[in-house]
Structure formats: C-alpha cells, structure tokens
Amino acid sequence: MDYEEAKVKITEQLTKKLKTKSKFYFNDLAKILEMKPREAKKIVNKLVENGVLEYWSSGSTSMYGMPGTGKQASAEHED
Amino acid sequence: MAKHETPLLSQLETGPWPSFVSDIKREAESRAKNEKGIDYQIPVDACEDLLGVLELSYKHGRTHWKHGGIVGVFGYGGGVIGRYCDQPEQFPGVAHFHTMRVSQPAGKFYTTEYLKGLCDLWEFRGSGITNMHGSTGDIIFIGTTTPQLEEVFYELTHTFNQDLGGSGSNLRTPSDCVGQARCEFACYDTQAICHELTNYYQDELHRPAFPYKFKFKFDGCPNCCVASIARSDLSFIGTWRDEIRIDAEAVKAYVGGELKPNGGAHAGRDWGAFDIQKEVVDLCPTKCMRYADGKLEINNKECTRCMHCINVMPRALRIGNDRGVTILAGAKAPILDGAQMGTLIVPFMKAEAPYDDIKEKVIEPIWDWWMEEGKNRERLGELMKRQGLQRMIEVLGVDPDPRMVQEPRSNPYIFWKEDEVEGGWKRDINEFRKYHKR
C-alpha cells in the first residue's frame, strides 16, 4: 500500500469512528492498514510527520488522533 | 511572605528526613529574589503556585492536576508529559506545567559543569525544579509551558548533546549500572551497550508503536545494582561461565585479619574476628564452597552467582574470565497481575560490540511477537504469562533449558507436540485396557 492510499484509508476510518472516539491505539491503525506493526509504523510515522495524525500521551500510554479532534484539544487551549 | 499559606505542607518539613517542600520553598525564594538577573520564561511564581496547588490537594484529599495530552516536540511521541492544573485562575503559574524527561548519560556520569548548565537552562526556561533521577533513571525537568518545550529541546540537543528520554508506549530510556568504569565486578561494558542500544533504537524510543512501555536495563554483575531483574522487560545481567578466580594469599589475608571483609563496610561495630566458615562458606546458597586446611575450594558447577563470597572477599575472589550476559524477560511492577520478576530466557551470551546477536536474536524477535500479539497496554511479562514460556521459547528459536525453570512445578514449559514424540499420541485402547482397568 502506498502512502496516499494509506492516508485516505486512515482518515476515512478515523473520521467514521469520531462520534464514539477520537484517540486510537497504534494497533487499531495497523489493523486499518492491514499491515504488520513494523510496516505500519513506517506509514504512521509519515502521517504524523505530515500532520495527518498527532500523538497523544498520558505519560504511560500513547495514542494517535487527528489534529483538533476530541476533548483534549480544546481543554489544552491549543486548538 | 509566601504567596499561599501552606500549613499542611509545612508540617511535612518537621519530619527527620529531607523534605521536598523545603526544596521547593527554597527555589521559590530564589526565583523571587532573582539575584542572577535571569529573564524567566515561565511565571516567576511557578514554585509558589506549585506549593499552593499541592496544599489545596492535601486539603481536598484529591488531585488538582490533569495529566496527558498532545504536547511534545516535533516528530517525537515521547519525552514530554503534558500536565495541567484544574484551578488555573487560582494558580496561574502552574496552569500549564509539563514534565520533560531527559535521557541520562550512560551510568549517570556527568561533570558538575554539565549539571550546572542543565540547571541554568531549566531555571531560565522552566520551573527550576528537577528530579535527579526519575525511576527509569532519566533526568526529570518538572514544570514548563508549551512554548518552552521546543526551546529546551533545541538547547538540549545543540548545546548539551543530549536527547529527550522515553515516555508513553515507547522504548523507555535504557538504564545501566556504573559498570566497568568503576566496578571490578562488571562482566561486560554496561555503558557501551546502553549507549549503543539507545542510539540504535532511536525510532523505538521516540515514536510510539508498542502496546505499552518497554524497558531495558543493564546490570554488570548479579549484584544487580539497577535491579534490572525486577524492573525491566528485558534485563541484562553480567555473568561468567568459567571459574571464580581464587587468590589463595588474599584468602589467607582475610582469614588472618590483614584485609577487612566487605571492604570494611561493617566497621561501625566490633563483630569479632572474621570467620570465613560462618560468614562465607556456610552462607553459600548452593553449599558449593569448602574451607579446609587453610584452603578455599569452590565447586563452580554448583555456583548460582549469588555474589556473596565475592562481595565479602573481593580481593581474594574475582569474577571468571569467560564473561557475558544472562538475559531475563518480563519483569514489571504491579498494575495487572501483581509484580513479576524476570524469567530467564538466555542463560549466557557474549556481549560484545556491535551486539548483533543480542539485537537480532533476542530483542527484535521479542518485539515482533509482542507488537503483533500483545494486547493494548499489555506488558511483555503479561503476554508471556498469557501465552506461556513455551511460546516465548519458540519465538526466540532456542531450546528449552532447565535453567529457565524457576523452581520445580513453578513454570513448567515443556509440552510435547505429537510430531515430537515417537509413535504420536495414538494408542490401541484395547491393548491399553488389558493392563489398566477402568
């Protein structure tokens, strides 16, 4: 799967689920991409680099979300 | 006068131990005076407000912090832990009060000049409060605002040649003991491997794709000064596979009292003359030592590297010459299932740069397995428990070894598969019943 295709797939799937959740585990993304984790990571890294995804971390666990979505963004006054 | 009244915190200072409250008060005072004329980049009264919010938490019996968030430096998914106060009007100095984890130098060696530089940077761009060192070993910078994060990161990487540490579902900052730099017990160069793996696994350290946290720790010998056996998902403990070297003359000197046992560590009280039988030989857990006719003998095959005899008589007994590491996996603190100690997976392996065997035959197969099969927020030790040590052995492609058994019946791992057994499982039940009634 090339980068553009992956981007569309991730954006579509994450947008679809936005009503119920805005933060996703890495494994959720790997499942959407139907790739092994190490391969998926290369694409996910790029998506973060290009601002399609952003990291969210509690300090102990990390998750991914689309920028500006979820409660966190407004709570941090950073949206 | 202090900005906030803090009677409950002040009470904490009355104990006999050094108090973090006094430290924060001192920093608050120093910031208020600003004798060095620092152009503080976050509110001057951050430390005052920190004390205030803590006092309020004690009063209410609940926290006024929210932690976690999207803050970080560009391209990194770890190293910064967002922290916000839920009473920002009352305590504006700590409304945004993020933690930064800074990777510690291997073995925690740094010069005082370097340390002063780090502290100056943090006074300028943060609260001035540090934690040397956090439980993972990192240098922890406590409290700054979002705009300062990139600035601090730039200074760390460009001026101090230092990187952010790990947090979140990342490889956490690898940590090691002082090793061969200062310790004669070190069986391999802990600092070299710690530094190499930190650099080699940068992507795993900074860009989270693991199910949960993952820790490496390196102990140079079985004394386990960084407690890797209890605190790391992958624990590397130095060992040897030949014989403990005995210096007979030095043994005599210990027995004769010329050399002080334990390096003179228990000299505060008169314990009487050193008794090698009582204090060393009888305390050997595997009873593999004998002292007779002024001669000390060790049956090395039975030695489990408890280190007691070497610790008591370091001049007389030395680690062997054929050295390497023992690797254990799966230790963790309690969250699910309670605390777990590491399980031995590699009894002995050489630890020599560039550590290809360790990387390719141990670390990466384990990661591939855990990344694919680990549930979200499942530590390696929990996956090992869920799928069994046998699966772990398959992943590593090693043969089961009796040394992997903690104690008989504790963690049985040998389950024969049908194709491994001559004749398989099938049997003639009628033939069996001839000899075994129902």
UniProtKB/TrEMBL annotation, chain A:
InterPro entries linked to this entry: DsrD, WH-like_DNA-bd_sf, WH_DNA-bd_sf
SUPFAM superfamilies xrefs: Winged helix' DNA-binding domain (SSF46785)
All residue ranges annotated as the Dissimilatory sulphite reductase D domain in the record: 6-68
A Pfam family of this chain: DsrD
Protein name per the record: Sulfite reductase, dissimilatory-type, subunit delta
Organism: Desulfonema magnum
Gene: dsrD
TrEMBL record, chain B:
SUPFAM superfamilies: 4Fe-4S ferredoxins, Nitrite and sulphite reductase 4Fe-4S domain-like, Nitrite/Sulfite reductase N-terminal domain-like
Domain 4Fe-4S ferredoxin-type: 294-322
GO cellular component terms given for this protein: sulfite reductase complex (NADPH)
Keywords per UniProt: 4Fe-4S, Iron, Iron-sulfur, Metal-binding
PROSITE patterns (alphabetical): 4FE4S_FER_2
Gene Ontology MF terms: 4 iron, 4 sulfur cluster binding; dissimilatory sulfite reductase (NADH) activity; heme binding; metal ion binding; sulfite reductase (ferredoxin) activity; sulfite reductase activity
Pfam (any one): NIR_SIR
Keyword DNA-binding: no
GO BP terms in the entry: sulfate assimilation
Name used for this protein in its record: Sulfite reductase, dissimilatory-type, subunit alpha
UniProt source species: Desulfonema magnum
Underlying gene: dsrA
